[in-house]
Amino acid sequence: MDRRLLRLGPVRHYATVLAGSAVLAAILIVGQAVSLATLLTGFTTNAALTCLAFVVLRGAHGAVAGAVAGRATARVKAHLRAELLGAATARGPGWLGGQRAGELATLAGRGVDGLDGYLSSYLPQVFLAVTVPLATLGWLAFTDLTSAIVVGVTLPLIPVFGVLVGKQTGARTKHQWHLLQRLGGHFLDTVIGLPTLRTFGAERSQVRRVRAMADAYRVATMRTLRLAFLSALVLELVATVSVALVAVPVGLRLLDGKLTLAAALVVLLLAPEAYLPLRALGTKFHASQEGLAASAEIFKVLDAAPVPPVRAAPRLPDARFAGLVFDRVEVRYGDVVALRDLTLEVMHGDRVALVGPSGGGKSTLLSLVLGFVTPASGRVLVDGADLADLDLTAWRARLAWMPQRPHLFAGTVTDNIRLGAPPASSGASPDSPVALPGLPGAASGLPGALSGLPGAASGLPGAASGLPGPASGLPGAASGLPGAASGLPGPASGLSGAPRPLNRKYQHSSALAQEVVDAAVAADADAFIRALPQGYDTDLGRHGLSSGQRQRLAMARAFLRRDTADLLLLDEPTARLDAASEAAVIDAAARLAVDRTALLVAHRPALLSIATRVVEIKDGVASAVVAA
């Protein structure tokens, strides 16, 4: 049994219920055996009714216990998925960027589902394996001490053989799980990167690799099943021989008149019941191993997640944003120093462009402002207050962010733009999860204030939603279209001509708000959105967009926050765009930055026209400051 799993709140409550259920089951088993023996030795109406009552109660108990186990298992799995996604969020985009999306998806999906066997079958059987043998032994000792001694001596043989076999099964199941995790990760990465593989003619080699990994998983699975079947045979043999050791002496003593018929019947009925829970425990042990192997990987993520320091109630940012100061900040990713002794002051109204070579620490600086990365030393001051002491949800609600790889979910255009709406205008509380078609709110785990974030920064590995996360590094992962993932224009990019009138669904959709249209117009996205097959109601999970169109949708999200955002964060908004798309995005960014404080990560000179000053970040140090 995994003690870390048993320490989870829902599991502890479930275990308490199982303990009471197991005690009741033991009482019913003994009562049924005694009443049946009484009925067989002398038929009476009372004896028949008593026996029937025990049979009905035992059957009803089994049905109720199964239903409770199913509901409790669902609650525990939901809790564990939420904990996993919360830990992934706490570890931040830096950690998520180094993970394989497919392995995380397999862990949060198939891995958590693998706990079904453990929680609904194995764990209840553990309690039955304790209460039922003790109850039967106690009654056997009261009825026939000799038989009780024989049962007491032979009972430990089953767990001994079970432990010996279980060690081998556990090792093989862990190996099987790791193969499945690798297979899932590699397969998903291959699907996402299929356009690139086709371009370089490498798709056949990847097919061979996937086939080889699938064969390895099949072989490992069959070996594990073979061991499970053989171990079940061993346990059945031991239990059968043990019951025979009880039954033969009972028969002989009954013939000699040393044992009454009623006592002999009780012994013969209870002896198999004493061994049955242990035999079933050995069988269900194998079904629980996949889930336990996956839970070990889940707890590696949970145990490694940073624990937030205990502080007093966090402060709210001041109502009026005055400035942002980086005071001798150092950020590390393991042994790598991303920012080193960085000192920078951004005052209200400044529009600071961050330039420098790739990997210099520009995006890390934005992650500091967003609260996704905590400095190893130094402080980030917001209006003189340490960012670490502020309510991050309230602080993020005052930010508008456009990442270099906007993440579009499998929902409508309206849904995707409204992700950027402040909680007040969206009608949600700051902590309300975002709900999209095909993306459960529990899986998103995102507060409304952060709803405009892509999978990487939001901490979503894409596991529960089935969407690839940051490890893929591909913007088109959510759309599921190779063209979008590879940066090639999607089906909508080739549309030209005058915008088509909105269809009936678009005209009358209650989900469409005027603020979404206004934001799209401001971001120069309204024209291409109206040209989509269903306008603002087009499902982006089935319709791809070009890189420029994706960037303008992300810009529309930022425009939804213009009235509430004090600080704009634009991370290479013109990366991978053609000249026309770049001009449209820069024009929209210029309008968005009017009378706002902004931090801009720029690699292209065109974006510098928005800035009031330029700061060069090189090797994690603000090495030069020049006027724009």
In short:
This protein is an alpha/beta fold and 628 residues long. Helix content is 58%, strand content 10%.
List the helices and strands and how they pair.
Elements: H1 3-6, H2 9-41, H3 45-96, H4 101-113, H5 115-143, H6 145-154, H7 157-192, H8 194-199, H9 203-255, H10 261-304, E1 323-333, E2 336-347, E3 351-355, H11 362-370, E4 377-382, E5 385-386, H12 392-396, E6 399-402, H13 413-418, H14 423-426, H15 441-444, H16 455-458, H17 482-485, H18 504-508, H19 514-522, H20 526-530, H21 547-559, E7 567-571, H22 579-592, E8 597-601, E9 613-618, E10 621-627
Parallel strand pairs: 3-8, 3-9, 6-7, 7-8
Antiparallel strand pairs: 1-2, 1-4, 4-5, 9-10
Helix pairs in contact: 2-3, 2-5, 2-10, 3-4, 3-5, 3-10, 4-7, 4-10, 5-6, 5-10, 6-9, 7-9, 7-10, 9-10, 19-21, 21-22
Model description:
Residues 424-512 have low confidence and may be disordered. This protein starts with a helix and ends with a strand. The chain is an alpha/beta fold and 628 residues long. The protein is elongated and about 110 Å long. It has a 6-stranded mixed β-sheet, sandwiched between helices. It has a 4-stranded antiparallel β-sheet with strand order 2-1-4-5, covered by helices on one side. Helices cover 58% and strands 10% of the residues. It contains 22 helices and 10 strands. A hairpin with a 2-residue loop joins strand 9 and strand 10.
